[in-house]
Amino acid sequence: MAYTRRIKETAIRMMLPPENTPLKKIGETLGIPEGTLKKWKQELRVNGHTLTESDPKSDKWSSQDKFLIVTETMKLNEAELSEYCKKNGLYEAQVKLWQENCMNANGNIPGQIAELMQQDKVTQRELRRLKKELQRKESALAETAALLVLRKKAEAIWGASDDEED
Questions:
Q1: Sign of CA dihedral 73, 45, 85, 58
Q2: What is the mean pLDDT of each run of 10 residues along the chain (166 residues)?
Q3: Cβ-based neighbours of 16, under 8 Å, separated by 6 or more
């Protein structure tokens, strides 16, 4: 069903802060199926709007929304951040934690790379040792096989030795 632009704008305004009206309530109020509202909400997210459910707990925010909030608030001073949080139903501590998490997301990469390189060196040494051992065993096996072939040929030519007849 096609909805007028005015109805869609009203629904979207209800989704956005400061109202943050749950989709179920919007659907009941405007007579729009929840699936349609979810589609519109997803379109808003794709277009860079931050959205939340009616509860501002951090587990209600998607990673994409948290990241958008961090990018929007990174350069705000304390007063601007406070105003932003009030307007969007957030807690300053929550936003600051998200900012810190974003800044530290790749912080341990050099340490992890060094550890992986060290593990790679150990693995390469072990691989070389095992290849060397395998080569030694293959050589010993080939030598043993050659000796057995020679022994059989010698027995065929000269007969069995006295040691084996007993």
A1: negative
A2: 82 76 86 88 74 51 84 90 86 86 78 87 96 97 96 88 56
A3: 44, 49, 51
Nearest to 17 by CA among 45, 62, 43, 51: 51
pTM for the whole structure: 0.37
Could you tell me the residue ranges of all domains in the chain?
A: 109-158
CB contact set of 126 (below 8 Å; sequence gap of 6+):
none
Q: What is the pLDDT, as a whole number, of residue 54? A: 43
| Distance between CA atoms of residues 140 and 153, nearest Å | 20
**DSSP-derived secondary structure letter, 106:** T
CA 58, 59, 63, 65 torsion: positive or negative? negative
Report the C-alpha gap between 71 and 65 in whole angstroms. 10
Return contacts of 34-43, CB within 8 angstroms, 24+ apart. 36/3, 37/11, 40/8, 40/11, 40/12, 40/15, 41/15
